[in-house]
Amino acid sequence: MFRFLHTADIHLDSPLKGLEAHEDAPADEIRGATRRAFDNLIDLAIDEEVAFVLIAGDLYDGDWKDYNTGLYFAGRMGRLDKAGIQVFIVSGNHDAASNTTKALPLPDNVFIFSHSRPESKKIDDLGVIIHGQGYAFKAVTDNLGAEYPVSESGYFNIGLLHTSLTGRENHASYAPCSLDDLQSKGYDYWALGHVHKREIVSENPTVVFPGNIQGRHIKETGAKGATLVTVEDGTITGVETRDLDVLRWAVCDVDLSTCTTAESVYEAVRAAFEHERDEACGRTVALRLVLTGRCPVHAQLLDRTFVWTEKFRAIAESIGGVWLETVKFKTTRQANLDELVGEDTPIAGLIASIWNLELGNEDPILSIPDLAALQSRLPAEIQTDDDPLWDTSPGKMAELCAEIQEMLISMLLQHGEKK
Q: Is the pTM above the cut of 0.90?
């Protein structure tokens, strides 16, 4: 019986996007988050006495800023070497041979597969053979898996590959291949990388994306870690996920349909925050709050979004373990617009005018020339995918225009109520 650990997409020293730009962000959890998650991986490998570790690409996040990244990694490989644990690595699109120009000597327990052709590495005392090939360039569009050799009888065969398979949401189509391509090789286990979400693609044979070990932004929510595999008499008897992340991202949807007062809103948000904190098992949660529902206090929310946001931040601070990244106000009004615009009042006329207003879908980058110059000077972490100024696709622009109309109408409705 032996065990091995399958990990991928570590992105050592990659910054956590969407946090560092905020003065009140949890700085201690941000600094070195990927390193601390990797330390957890090393501890897990030693504690579980695994025979070897598989790294299926994107160990690094591109070329190093300096040698500190390489020195850190070499030191951690030294810890595994002293524990008698071997490490097998293929490069991915982020650490392709053309991207990472620096290199440092590594301990003898580390084997890096060729990026020019598939290689096979035997571990005779375990009866294991590992097949792999790394990336020579970032944008590998060839089917690398098709060139892997067929399984070798008498061995437990593992394929180590960085691939998008037939495509996964939010991931570029690199080294594409089909599940049939992988199954045709006759391997016992395929250790894949590139997709940052955990997924057991197949159980016969076992094909796994372990996901990344530390979420780096709001689109990488939930638990992150590695896959621990147990093999007995040449048969897989266990495939376990082990959490390694040190800071967890979460999108928290709170339905305010039944909330009629500010206090009831605060209670609903507090309960949601406490749930996310408890689910994270002691980790700090970087949380995006999304308020939804046909809400009696819809107009009040839109009228004072900044004030509400600061009060929600205070709730997060008071319960501890939660940092509020941002708030999305997605509630809708209870009032029936068709009935309102039928009334013979000045406010009804204004509402009808706003509702029928054609704001258009023109790209604001083009309509405001200075904005393009400003965008080019902004740090990358500020230009988030969720900001409509930078995502100017027709769908996003239509959504922005609808939000503007809704905000104006809600403000008018609130004004009417005060009268």
A: no
